[in-house]
Amino acid sequence: MRSHTASGEPLKGVEALERSGLHEQYRNRLLYHLEAGLLYHLAGKYRESNRFLESAEWISDEMYTRSLSLEAAALATSDNLLPYRGKYYDYLFINYYKLLNYLHLGSLESALVEVRRINHKLALFGEENAFLRWVTAVLHRHSGEYSSAFIDYLRAYRAYEKTYPEKFGVQMPRFLAEDIAVFCAETRHPRSLEFPPEVLASRRLPPPEYGSVIFIVETGFSPHKYEKRVAAEVPVSGREKD
Fold first, then answer.
1. Which residue of 139, 172, 183, 198 sits 20 to 30 Å from the alpha carbon of 55, by its own alpha carbon?
2. What are the DSSP calls for the chain, one per residue?
């Protein structure tokens, strides 16, 4: 599946996914719908992609509450006993690609629904994602929701300023500062001074009736997950000696 995707043949990747039998395994049903949703997106089949991603969202919501009995069994044996429930970034992944699909389908209103779901999940998980905050800021701005756009720009900026350099070794990209500067100059938002002067001065106001094109470039695959097995003796207390 990965080789077909890398060679630009995602529909052949779908065929490989179906042959894998992943869809027949209950514990892998979330993974199957995530993979199928992505492959159909890459193939330009946006309605089909959303159909699988919508199912993935229902499954992830259902699995969000863990089964205590299965968790207890997994502690004694292996996490492979558990259904794949995904991580917080898998849940964000669902709405990000649904958002892109709706934009390709020309439905800004539906894309904005996914924006709200992304922001809700970020708050729910207590995680910050500067890239997704920037994406949601752009869509809020495009739809004229300037207060929401400002908040998302500010959160993206703070993540790059305070968290990302230390945690990931990533500095704030110049385009974000320029985007913020243009937004604040255009809208004259009353809270613009919450950004430092060097950000606001990073770009002058563009001429009237200007336009912009945004390219989102995705490269590579997500890292593999590997199983690590540990064999350990478990002492039993209170056992009588022979």
1. 139
2. -HHHHHTT-HHHHHHHHHHTTGGG-GGGHHHHHHHHHHHHHHTT-HHHHHHHHHHHHHHHHHHSSPPHHHHHHHHHS-GGGS-----HHHHHHHHHHHHHHHHHTT-HHHHHHHHHHHHHHHHHHT---HHHHHHHHHHHHHTT-HHHHHHHHHHHHHIIIIIHHHHH--PPPHHHHHHHHHHHHHH--TTGGGS-HHHHTSSPPPPTT----------S-PPP------------TTPPP-
Are 152 and 134 within 8 A, CB to CB? Answer: yes
- 0.70 exceeded by pTM: yes
Find out whether 156 and 130 touch, Cβ atoms under 8 Å. yes
Dmax over Cα atoms in the chain, in whole Å? Answer: 92
The residue among 139 and 211 whose pLDDT is bigger is 139
CB atoms within 10 A of CB 53: 25
pLDDT at residue 79, as a whole number: 64
For 55-111, the pLDDT digits (tens) are: 999 988 887 666 545 555 555 556 666 777 788 888 999 999 999 999 999 999 999
Query: Which sign does the torsion angle of CA 95, 58, 28, 83 carry?
Result: positive
Task: Report whether 122 contacts 129 (CB < 8 A).
Answer: yes
Instruction: Let me know if 98 is exposed, middle or buried by CB neighbors in 10 A (0-12, 13-18, 19+).
Output: buried
Q: Which two tokens stand for residue 201?
A: 């001065």
